[in-house]
Design brief:
disordered N terminus; 34 strands; 18 helices; about 750 residues; 8-stranded mixed β-sheet; alpha/beta
C-alpha cells in the first residue's frame, strides 16, 4: 500500500475546497469529499451517445459501466479516443492512490500514476454525473485528490454466520464505491472455522458447522429460526483465490484473521489434541461471547499446527499483514495445565499473561520469517512486540495511544463508534447488537487521539469499521447496518479535513436514492438525541449540549417528565448547577417519537472527587473518563472483568457523610452481573476503615436488564475517604449459556451525601 510514501504525502496536504471566484457554489454531492475541488461556472450537457470513453485500464470502465447501468441505466461506449479519458501518466506529483479529474467543454480527463487512482477517479466521476431530459450533466470542475490514510478498512465477521461468495463480492463492491481499500476478513472464531486448510480437513468438515442457527437474541427478534439441522459453510481455497483476485481488481487488500490463542473452540473441537489435556470437553459455540477454547501453550505440536495453518493462509493471501486476533483469551486452562506450567518455567514467564506474550511473540517470529507483518487487537501489546507488528485499537483509544508512542503502526477501530454491529437507531426492529453508534457518532469521532504526541501521529496508518455478525444472520441485515454509516467511515478515512455535519448530512441524503436503485435497504437515520455533559468540578456545575442527526427541533424537560411539543425548545448549550433528570427527544413528521434520551445529573458531595480503583477497569469501559464514577451523571459505566469494583474516593478534607448509594448494571445475557455483595466503609486517614453499611444480594438466575441501586443512610460521620467494595460473581454461573466464562461488573456512579 506504499504506506510510507502515502503518509509523507498526506502530512503535507491541507484542505482546499475551493469554489468559484465568487465563492458561492455549494459543495458537490461527493462522498468521500476530495482533497481539492475547484468548481467553475456552468455545466457540461451532452447526449449519452456522445459520451464515449477510453482508458488505459479496461477494468475501470467495466466497473464504471456496471455501476452506471444499475444507478442511471446508461452505458458509456468504448472508443479509441473517448470524450472521457482515463490515462496513466508518469507524474511523481500525483500521490499514491491519487488522481486528477477535470471536466471541460470538450473533454473529461482523469489522470493517475497507478491503476488505483483511475479506479477512484471513476468513482468520483460516477457521483458527479446526473441525467437531465435524457442528457448527461456534469459540472465544470477540476479536482486533485488523494487519501488521508493508507489503511481504509472494513471488517466482516463470517464465523458467527456464513455469507457466501456472492455476498462477499457484494461487500467488496460496496467498499470499492466508497474508496475503502482494506478488507479484514474474520474467518474463524469459537462459533465456526470457515477457511479450507488442506492439511487439516477436519477444520471445515467439523469446525464449519453447528447444530443451531442461534443466537437467542436473534430468535427473540425473529431474525432467524432455530433448528437442529447442520448450519454453516466454508470457503474452499478456490473460493478464496477467486475472492482475492476480485478484491485486487478493486484495489482492496484482504487481511485474513487466524484467531489465536483464544476464540478457537471450533478448531479445538475438530483437533482436540491441541487443547490442554485436562481442560475437559469443548463444543462449538452457539452463542456470542468468549469460550474456554484456547490453544495449549505448552505443546510443541500446537505451534506446528498453527505454523502449518498460517503457511497455507499466506499462500492464499498475498498481502503484507496477517491478523492473529490475540484478544479475550481466558487463561484458566493454562494455569491448570502441567505442559503450560512447564512452558512458563522454561521461558521464565512469571504468570499466564507473560505466557500469552510468549505465544504471540513466537507466532510473530514465524510470520516475520516469511516477510509478513503481524497485526492484532490491542491486547497483544501486553508483554511487548517486535517493532514491525501493528495494533488495532478496539478497546477505546488507549491501546492506540500506547502502541503509537511505542513506535508501532496503529489502525484506530474503537468499539464506540466504529463497531457497525451496534445499532444506528432505536427502532425495535433494527438488527444489531444493543448499544447505539449513529452516523453522526462515526463521522465526528476524532480519528487520531490528541494524546498521541505529534512526532508519533504518523503511526496511525488508518481507520477501520467492524461488522460482527452475531446479531445479523442475513446479508440484508449487514447492508442495513453498513449503510449509511459506511459513508462516514469512508470520508473520515479519505478526506483530509471533515466537513460541517449539516453539509455531510445533506450529501448523505442526496446519495440514499442511489442505494434504492441498487436494491439496498439502508439503515434509518436516527431521531436519537445525544446528551453531552461537560462537568465543571470546581464550580459544581455542568454544561449540557444536545446533538442530533436530523435537523428536527429538540424538546426537553429537566424534571424527568416526558417531553411534548409544548416542552422547552433546545436552542444551544446551557449550564446546570442543580440536580436534574433531563429527558430530550425529536418528534417525527407524524408527531410520534422513536426514542427519548435521558440523563440524570446529581451534584453530590463526591462530585469530581478523585478515586483509586484497586482493579483496573477495561479500557473500553472507562465511564467517560478520569472521574467516571464521580462525574455526577448516570448511565455511562465503568466496567471491570472478573474482579471486584473496589474504589477509594478522596473527599479532599474531612466531610460529614450520612448517605452513600452505588449503582450497578444487571444484564446477564451480555455477561454483566450485579454484585453478589456490596460494602461501604469510611476512614479519616485512608488506613483504618469502618464499615457503615453492607448488602448481600447474592446471585439470582435472571435475564432482565436493569440498574440496581444500593442506597444506605446512617448516622452522620466525618470522614475524608469513602471506600466501596462490590464483589463480582467472577464467572458466569452454571445456568448461564457461557457458564464458567468471565463475568463483568458495571457501575455508573457512587453518590455521596
Amino acid at each position: 500500500m506504499r504506506i510510507k510514501q502515502l503518509i509523507a504525502t498526506t502530512m503535507s496536504i491541507f484542505l482546499l475546497v475551493a469554489c468559484s471566484e465568487k465563492g458561492d457554489n455549494p459543495m458537490l454531492n461527493l462522498i468521500p469529499y476530495p482533497a481539492e475541488v475547484n468548481q467553475e461556472k456552468g455545466e457540461l450537457k451532452i447526449d449519452v451517445a456522445m459520451l464515449s470513453v477510453s482508458s488505459d485500464d479496461d477494468f475501470v470502465v467495466t466497473l464504471l459501466n456496471k455501476q452506471l447501468k444499475a444507478e442511471q441505466n446508461i452505458q458509456l461506449a468504448h472508443a479509441e479516443d473517448g470524450f472521457v479519458k482515463f490515462k496513466l501518466v508518469n507524474d511523481v506529483t500525483i500521490p499514491a492512490e491519487g488522481y486528477r479529474l477535470k471536466v471541460a467543454p470538450k473533454q473529461v480527463l482523469i489522470e493517475a500514476a497507478e491503476k488505483s487512482g483511475l479506479l477512484y477517479g471513476a468513482q468520483t466521476l460516477r457521483q458527479l454525473l446526473s441525467l437531465e431530459n435524457g442528457r448527461v450533466v456534469l459540472p465544470y470542475v477540476s479536482i486533485k485528490d488523494s487519501p488521508r490514510f493508507a489503511w481504509r478498512g472494513m471488517h466482516f465477521d463470517v464465523s458467527r454466520h456464513f455469507f457466501d461468495v456472492h455476498e462477499i463480492k457484494q461487500f467488496l463492491d460496496y467498499m470499492a464505491m466508497n474508496k475503502l481499500n482494506t478488507f479484514h476478513w474474520h474467518l474463524l472464531d469459537d462459533q465456526a472455522w470457515r477457511l479450507e486448510i488442506k492439511k487439516y480437513p477436519k477444520l471445515t468438515e467439523v469446525g464449519a458447522w453447528r447444530e443451531n442457527v442461534g443466537f437467542t437474541a436473534n430468535q427473540e427478534k425473529g431474525l432467524n429460526v432455530q433448528n437442529t439441522e447442520a448450519y454453516g459453510g466454508y470457503y474452499t481455497q478456490a473460493d478464496v483465490r477467486e475472492i482475492v483476485a476480485y478484491a485486487a481488481e478493486r484495489n482492496i487488500t484482504i487481511v485474513p484473521e487466524i484467531e489465536l490463542p483464544g476464540h478457537s473452540a471450533a478448531a479445538l473441537v475438530a483437533y482436540p489434541e491441541y487443547y490442554c489435556n485436562n481442560a475437559g470437553e469443548l463444543e462449538i459455540w452457539e452463542q456470542a461471547g468468549v469460550s474456554a477454547g484456547v490453544y495449549c501453550a505448552g505443546k510443541e505440536t500446537t505451534f506446528q499446527f498453527l505454523e502449518d495453518v498460517l503457511s497455507e493462509t499466506m499462500d492464499l493471501f498475498p498481502g503484507e499483514f496477517i491478523h492473529i486476533g490475540g484478544d479475550e483469551t481466558p487463561k484458566d486452562t493454562w494455569l491448570a495445565c502441567p505442559d503450560c506450567r512447564q512452558r512458563m518455567k522454561e521461558e521464565g514467564a512469571h504468570d499466564e499473561h507473560e505466557l500469552q506474550s510468549y505465544f504471540v511473540h513466537r507466532i510473530e517470529k514465524f510470520l516475520n520469517k516469511h516477510n509478513r507483518r503481524l497485526i492484532g487487537w490491542d491486547e497483544i501489546l501486553d508483554g511487548g512486540l517486535a517493532q514491525s507488528a501493528a495494533v488495532m485499537s478496539w478497546r477505546g483509544v488507549a491501546g492506540g495511544v500506547k502502541a503509537a508512542e511505542a513506535g508501532h503502526d496503529v489502525v484506530m477501530t474503537p468499539m464506540f463508534p466504529y463497531y457497525f454491529n451496534h445499532t444506528q437507531n432505536h427502532l425495535s426492529t433494527s438488527p444489531g447488537h444493543p448499544g447505539i453508534s449513529t452516523l453522526r457518532d462515526v463521522y465526528t469521532f476524532p480519528s487520531i487521539p490528541t494524546d498521541i504526541s505529534p512526532e508519533n501521529r504518523h503511526h496511525v496508518i488508518g481507520v477501520q469499521a467492524n461488522m460482527w455478525s452475531e446479531y445479523m444472520p442475513e446479508f440484508k441485515h449487514i447492508e442495513y447496518n453498513l449503510f449509511p454509516r459506511v459513508f462516514a467511515i469512508a470520508e473520515v478515512a479519505w478526506s483530509p479535513v471533515i466537513s460541517e455535519w449539516d453539509d455531510f448530512y445533506a450529501r448523505v441524503n442526496n446519495t440514499l436514492p442511489l442505494l434504492e436503485k441498487l436494491g439496498v435497504k439502508a439503515g434509518d437515520i436516527s431521531y436519537h438525541v445525544r446528551i453531552n455533559v461537560e462537568p465543571d468540578y470546581e464550580n459544581k456545575s455542568a454544561t449540557l449540549a444536545f446533538v442530533s442527526e436530523r435537523p428536527n427541533t429538540i424538546f426537553y424537560t429537566k424534571d424527568g417528565s416526558t417531553p411534548t411539543t409544548r416542552s422547552t425548545v433546545y436552542t444551544g448549550p446551557f449550564v446546570l448547577a442543580e440536580d436534574a433528570h433531563i429527558k430530550a427527544c425529536q418528534f417525527k413528521e407524524d408527531g410520534t417519537t422513536t426514542f427519548i434520551s435521558e440523563k440524570e445529573i446529581i451534584f453530590h458531595k463526591a462530585f469530581g472527587k478523585p478515586y483509586v480503583l484497586k482493579y483496573a477497569h477495561a479500557p473500553q469501559y472507562d465511564g467517560g473518563g478520569k472521574y467516571g464514577l464521580t462525574n455526577g451523571f448516570l448511565g455511562v459505566e465503568v466496567g471491570v472483568e472478573e474482579k471486584p469494583i473496589d474504589l477509594t474516593i478522596d473527599m479532599g478534607e474531612p466531610t460529614e457523610i450520612s448517605y452513600i448509594n452505588s449503582r450497578f448494571k444487571n444484564a446477564p445475557m451480555s455477561w454483566v452481573f450485579g454484585p453478589k455483595k456490596v460494602r461501604y466503609e469510611l476512614s479519616e486517614d485512608g488506613t483504618t476503615f469502618k464499615e457503615v453499611a453492607s448488602f448481600e444480594p447474592g446471585v439470582t438466575e435472571s435475564d432482565v436488564n436493569e440498574i440496581v441501586d444500593y442506597p444506605a443512610e446512617f448516622s452522620a460521620t466525618k470522614a475524608r475517604y469513602v471506600r466501596i467494595i462490590a464483589e463480582s460473581v467472577g464467572t458466569c454461573p452454571a445456568w448461564h449459556p457461557a457458564a464458567g466464562g468471565k463475568a463483568w461488573l458495571f457501575s455508573d456512579e457512587v453518590i455521596v451525601k
